[in-house]
Amino acid sequence: MFIRLGYEIGIRCSQPTPMMTFLSVDLARRPDIVSERGPISDPVVKMGEVTDPFGNICMRMVVPAGGLNLTYDAVIKDGGHPDPVNPGAAAVAVEKLPPECLPYLSASRYCETDRFGALAWRLFGEIEPGWARVQAICDYVHQRLTFSYGYKPSLRTAMEAHEERAGVCRDYAHLAVTLCRCMNMPARYVNGYMGDIGVTDNPAPMDFNAWFEVFLDDRWYTFDARHNIPRIGRVVVARGRDAADIPLIQTFGKHELTTFKVWTSREADSALTEPHNKADVSLLTPWFSERWSRLVQQREHERKH
Fold it and tell me: Do 287 and 205 touch, CB atoms closer than 8 A?
């Protein structure tokens, strides 16, 4: 199976501004790329590739005064299999965890484990440690939050998402990661591409997606509290403790986002000759899900009565 993926991002700056991007396909998946165009900047700027402490690839550049557009378009080979499911996977005792897992047990910028401990153990303490417990956490987060871009404070933490009962995919991931860490299971945040392959098309605007991974037995397993079903065609871009570690775009100065388009879809072949599929709805304008609209109406009704 072939997957077409890419982005077009526009940045406006009033003066030359250093910038880093976490937009490159994960190193382990790069051999699967069969056609590629970019990243290309307009105007042309010098770009350097570096590796961060988590093993992610990021690009460094200086955005000129006035800004630039970044574009990338590629086709990647994929096995077409859904996320692996292993109900027998067991949690690993903390004292037996590999050292590299330990940072993923602690609190981080958006994952306040110290505020969730009592709730987590009350909700999930009686569930068998391992896959069943992680799935119970996914079920809880999936039901607890309502997805909508129209209600998206960029600095929302796991606790704020839990109390507001709303968010986007990063909020689902942050909340699930936090609850897993409270239950002594290493969990890390993942950002990447995931199109509507093998499922009904989603009316939300196309975007990068966030999910999470949990260390069970002797490996990391993929989980997704927002969709809460195994999905086909995930392409990892970066992993970290939470979104603060792997921002898609990080500028070291003031900037304005002028364009943000992402595409991910199944492709018939590996050529880049046909135009990619663009979403009809822009991420730069509010988009509300039907569920969120119903929730707002219900709250307004309760407030008046």
Answer: yes
